[in-house]
Every structure is written in C-alpha cells, then in structure tokens.
Design goal:
Strand content of chain A: 25-35%
Shape of chain A: elongated
Order of helices and strands of chain B: HHHHHHHHHHHH
Strand order of the largest sheet of chain A: 6-7-8-3-9-10
Distance between the termini of chain A: 36 Å
Helix content of chain A: 25-40%
Largest sheet of chain A: 6 strands, mixed
Distance between the termini of chain B: 40 Å
Structural class of chain B: mainly alpha
Oligomer: heterodimer
Low-confidence stretches of chain B: none
Mean pLDDT of chain B: 87
Number of strands of chain B: 0
Number of helices of chain A: 9
Largest sheet of chain B: none
Radius of gyration of chain B: 25 Å
Structural class of chain A: alpha+beta
Number of strands of chain A: 20
Helix content of chain B: over 70%
Number of helices of chain B: 12
Low-confidence stretches of chain A: none
Order of helices and strands of chain A: EEEHEEEHHHEHEHEEHHEEEHEEEEEEE
Chain lengths: 368, 299
C-alpha cells in the first residue's frame, strides 16, 4: 500500500514567501499522478516535501495512512529521480546503483542480482563500470532511474526527469516510463511542465498555479472540461482560443466576438441564461474548426495571418474581422495565401464559456 | 594560393611571437637575476670548499659537502626535527581546518565576520607572530603564565624545555597558518554540488555516511592540493624558529632551514650550507612537481 495523501499542506519560506498553499491531494496506491504547471507553481516543492527534502510548514502528509511529516527521508522508502540526475560523480554506474542497497546492508549477492536485473531492464549493462562523466545525457537519465528502481521503493517521485533530454529521446523515455509503471504497478508522482507528458503519461493530472491546485482529474477529462481559462490555455498545443465576447439575446442566445456569431445550442441555454447581455470569454479548441461545411456548423470568414504546415496537420493562424487572432488545426492538405480570406466552420456544441471576472468556466449541462 | 595564405599566417605568427618575447623579457630578466642565477650559484658553491674565512673557489671537492652533511649527526637531527614538525603541523592544521571549514560551511549568519576573524593571523607577518607569542609565553612576564597562575597552574617554561618548546612552535604555527587550510577547504566545500547529498539522503545515508561516501571523495582534489601546498611551505619554516627559539633548546626546534642558516652564518661554511640548501630544494621541488602533476591530472 502506498497511498500518498496531502491534507491542507502549506510551505512558507523564510521572508514569508508562500510556495504552496492549502494543498489537498490524494494519490491512490499504484496510481501514475502528474503534477503539471508552469515554473514556480510549487509542483517541485510539493514533490520535495513528499520526499522529505523540504519541511512542511503546516498541514499533514500521509503515506499509507501513516503521518510522515517528521519521518526522515531515508525512512520513508521513497525514491526520487532528479531533473539533473544527481548521480555520484566519483562512483561507477554500478556503485551509483548499489549505494542505497549497501547502506541498507543488503547481502552482497542480492545487490549484484538486483543491479544486474535493473541494468538489463534499462539497457545499461555495458555501462556498469563507467563513471557518470563518461555517459551521455540519456544514459545518465537511465542510471538515475535505475538507482530509484534498484531499491524497489513503495513509490517513485519523478522531478522533471525528461526535461534535459532531446525531443526524440524524451518521446521514447515517455513510452518506457509508461511501460515501467504498468510492469511495476507502483505509485508514481511525476512533476512536469510539459503538457504532452501530462496528457500521455498520467492516469490523473493535477494542475497547479501559484502554489495552489487548480484542477485534478483524468487528462482527457481536464482537456474536455477545463475549470478555468488558465487550464484551458495551458493544456494542448496550440491551446484553446480564448476570445472576449458577449452573450447576446436575439432569436435565442448567441455568443458574439467581432464578426463571429455563434448561436448557443438549445441544451446550454438554461445554463448560460444568467450571463444574458453580459461579457463572457469564449473558448474554442483549434481542433473544433473545419474547412468543409457540415450540418450544425457555423461559418465565419477569417483573414489568413500565418500557415504552419507541421506535416501531419496544418495550423492556421487567422484573424476574425473586428476580433482577435485564432488558431485552428486543419488537415495536412490545407494551404492558403497569407492575407487571403478563408471560410472556417465552427462547431458551436464545443464552445466553452468563462466568466471574465473569476475566469472560471460557466458550467454547461450536457454530455459532450 | 594556399601556400601564399599559409606563409602570410606564419608571418603574423612570427610577429606575434616576437611581440610576446618583448612583453615577457623584463619579467624573465628579473627572474633570471633573482631566482635562476642564485639557484645555480648555490649549486655551484656546493661543490667547493668555500667558507667565509677562505673565500675562494680554488678547492673543488665534488660531493664532499653532501657526504659530510650526512656524516654529521646534527644534519640528521635537523632532518628528523623537520619531519616531525612538518607532519605535526600539517596533520593538526588539516584536522582543525577541516573541522572548522565544515562548521563554517553550515553557518548562515555572520559568516563574513567569522571569516574575517579567522583570516587575521594569516595577514600578520610571521616575524611579528613569533614576537607576539614569545612575549605572551615569556616564563616570568608573559600573560599566558600569569593567566595560568590565576587558576592555580604552575608556570610553564614554554620555550625553555626541549619537548615543550617543540610543541610551542608547532602550536604557534597552527595559530598562524590554520586559516589557510580553513579558507581553501571552505572554498572547496562551498563549491560542492548540492544534488548528490539529496540523492544520498534519499538513498538512506546518515550525515556521517554522506560525509564519508560523498563529501570526502568529492573533496579529494581540494584536500590533496591543500595538503601539498601547506607541506611545501611547512618544510621551509624559518621565521618562527629564528625569533622564538633559535633552534633550541639544544636542537629541539632545529628545523632544516634554520640549520642551513647556522652553518652559513655561525659555522661560516658556505659550501656546506649550499649543499644542504640544494638538498632542501630537491625535496621541495619533488613535492612541487607532484603537486603540479596532480593538478594537471585534474584538469
């Protein structure tokens, strides 16, 4: 059992700098949890408090229902993989891997066996007698991971372990970590600022901002129903378009932004009624815009500002007459001349509305 | 075309090199004058029976000065005293220095003030240090014996007793030079990466285990360099002994550098003194060469 629970946790640094505020999070046994947020949001501090490398100013931290605020890190039986790997520079890879086991007086044969197992699992067998200085970034990353694995701890803490790798290596390590989690079934808390990691790796993602949790949920759920404009603008690339708009009352409600006029689908009308004739923020995912027309879509003419052909898809950046710039994800065959007028079709059933004062999502009562 | 380009570059190269020589010439000339020449002259003199009573280079005696140095008991004695002194001074200064450096490294407030206080002795001229301590330790008039008297401890003859005098010089040297160790080791400690310590904590290391398995190995280069530099300087110690004990009582504090001084200016045997100087130079040179090679191997 390795359920990790944070209850009302605060971290205040000397000089009254609050890094983490009233954090409540329940990481289930065996769960792959992502802490996601921009730098300085307190996600690393949270991880380091769980590890025991930072003290908790107030609140409670539980590991398997035991309060561990004051338990020394070496008695918590958690393993951490650091962003910069933190290998022991003077030890060989073998000694780096076995250090923790040697300190725990594990019998020599068992150490050798565990090290060989982990080295084989991570493909670092040929490197065992090298020192960290003679390893590439990807190899060091594997050794750091191996050092955590070899101890067979109750849970793993990953502090942005992939952020120093190049894009290709990062993608393959991502897949390997997912497989590893599946294989070991251990609790993993993974800190990252990379929303692709968050979407693909985690069973649940916890989005943080300014030391507070903004939203916790399954990645796809968070993607579908962001609780506020911060989450909407943070997840996915390009992120949701957020446009200042008004909710106008003509024949039924419609959201107006420049020349774009989106009729509110009947099923949302009741939920949005309170904002009638008021300013709102309209959120539209780039992937909910199309070139071909289809039943239920609403047309809008936009002026092409840039066309980014990425290969598998093309991102169109364009301007709504009398309004702001929007991004749309279109098919790979799309092309247009800059400055030309393009007709896009938008799916109004995928609209999100946010309160411009609180930035919170205005709930819509329908099943997407 | 290519050959033209090459010769052009080498012409620039030549001019650069000439300019380089021009710039270093004054420095090289003065080094030759004050270091290289005396050095070779010493080696030269060591081959002659040259004394201040008989100042001529008419009697070349080869290695006789070296042979007689080893034949003489006093030289062996001086070597032994020097060895004891160097080991005692370097070992104790290292232990104290490392302990203080470790303590200072974890201090947050007033670090600069501690630093300043610790650096004070190092800024004082060794002759002044020796004079101050000679006065403090004077058996009748010194403040140390006076203070000891206040708590009922009998007067200690700090510089008059052979065994005590040796340790008095050692302690004075420690008082003077220990900050050198502290400063260098502290610089090394504060440059250590923080991450391996956090990794060690997660791996289950206690403070002592982290010190043994992380701090010491990572500090090894700094420790070796600090020890060697201090060793080289300790071998050459002269001022303290000259001012405090004149090598005495007996030969209790007769360090090799003071022994050289005595053979030259009391024994008036310049040839003999030169020979021992050359031996001392060989020792120091060997240590320096090792230090240099070790530092090169780190880079």
């Amino acid at each position: 059992m390795a359920e990790i629970r944070l209850s009302g946790v605060n971290k205040v640094y000397p000089g009254n700098v609050t890094a983490v505020e009233d954090l409540n999070l329940d990481v289930r046994d065996g769960e792959f949890m992502i802490l996601l947020g921009p730098s300085g949001c307190g996600k690393s501090t949270t991880l380091r408090m769980i590890a025991g490398l930072e003290t908790i100013t107030s609140g409670d931290l539980y590991l398997a229902d035991k309060r561990i605020n004051d338990v020394d890190p070496r008695d918590r039986d958690l393993a951490i993989v650091f962003q910069n790997y933190a290998l022991y520079p003077h030890m060989t890879v073998r000694d780096n891997l076995s250090f923790g086991l040697r300190l725990r007086h594990v019998p020599r044969e068992d150490i050798a066996r565990r090290v060989d197992e982990v080295a084989a699992m991570l493909g670092i067998g040929p490197l065992l007698d090298r020192k960290p200085a003679a390893l590439s970034g990807g190899q060091r990353q594997r050794v750091a991971l191996g050092r955590a694995l070899v101890r067979d701890p109750v849970a793993f803490l990953f502090d942005e372990p992939l952020s120093n790798l190049d894009a290709k290596l990062r993608a393959s390590m991502r897949t390997e970590l997912i497989k590893l989690h599946h294989q070991l079934g251990r609790t993993i808390i993974h800190v990252t600022h990379d929303q692709v990691e968050a979407m693909t790796m985690g069973q649940r993602v916890c989005i943080m901002k300014d030391g507070r949790i903004v939203q916790v949920g399954e990645p796809i759920e968070v993607y579908r129903n962001p609780v506020n404009t911060f989450v909407a603008g943070f997840l996915a690339s390009p992120p949701m378009n957020l446009l200042p708009a008004r909710l106008e009352d003509g024949q039924g409600l419609s959201v107006v932004h420049g020349s774009l006029r989106l009729p509110v689908p009947a099923e949302f009308s009741a939920s949005f009624a309170a904002y009638r004739s008021k300013p709102v923020i309209l959120g539209l995912r780039p992937e909910d815009m199309y070139v071909p027309d289809a039943p239920g879509l609403v047309a809008v003419d936009v002026k092409v500002a840039a066309v980014e052909a990425l290969g598998p898809e093309t991102v169109l950046v364009s301007e709504i007459a009398g309004g702001a710039e929007i991004s749309s994800r279109l098919g790979r065959e799309f092309s247009a001349r800059i400055g030309s007028i393009q007709r896009l079709h938008i799916d109004p059933r995928q609209m999100h509305l946010f309160d411009p004062e609180t930035t919170s999502a205005i709930p819509r009562n329908h099943a997407a | 075309m290519a050959t033209v380009a090459v010769s052009k570059i080498s012409e620039i190269d030549r001019r650069d090199r000439r300019f380089g020589w021009l710039l270093t010439a004054p420095g090289l000339a003065s080094l030759t004058l004050v270091i290289t020449f005396p050095l070779f002259f010493t080696v030269f003199v060591s081959g002659f029976d040259y004394t201040l009573l008989h100042r001529s280079f008419d009697t070349f005696i080869g290695i006789e000065n070296y042979r007689s140095a080893f034949a003489e008991n006093y030289f062996g004695e001086a070597l032994w005293v020097t060895l004891k002194f160097v080991v005692a001074v370097v070992a104790l200064e290292f232990l104290i220095g490392f302990t203080v450096a470790l303590m200072l490294n974890s201090v947050g407030r007033f670090k600069d003030i501690y630093y300043l206080i610790l650096l004070m002795p190092l800024l004082i001229n060794p002759v002044v240090v020796a004079l101050i301590w000679r006065m403090f330790l004077h058996p009748e008039l010194g403040i140390v014996n006076y203070l000891l008297g206040l708590v009922g401890i009998a007067k200690v003859n700090w510089l008059g007793d052979p065994v005590i005098a040796f340790w008095t010089v050692v302690l004075t040297d420690i008082w003077h030079q220990v900050s050198f160790m502290i400063v260098l080791l502290l610089a090394g400690l504060s440059a250590l990466p923080k991450e391996p310590y956090e990794a060690a904590r997660m791996d289950g290391a206690s403070t002592l285990q982290a010190f043994i398995h992380v701090t010491l190995p990572l500090m090894r280069p700094v420790i070796v360099v600090t020890l060697l530099i201090r060793l080289i300087f300790a071998v050459k110690t002269f001022d303290l002994v000259y001012v405090m004990t004149r090598g005495g009582p007996g030969t209790a504090t007769d360090l090799i550098s003071y022994f050289i001084y005595r053979s030259a200016f009391f024994g008036l045997d310049i040839g003999q003194a030169s020979a021992i100087s050359v031996l001392l130079l060989v020792i120091v040179l060997a240590l320096t060469a090792y230090l240099y090679r070790y530092m090169r191997s780190l880079a």
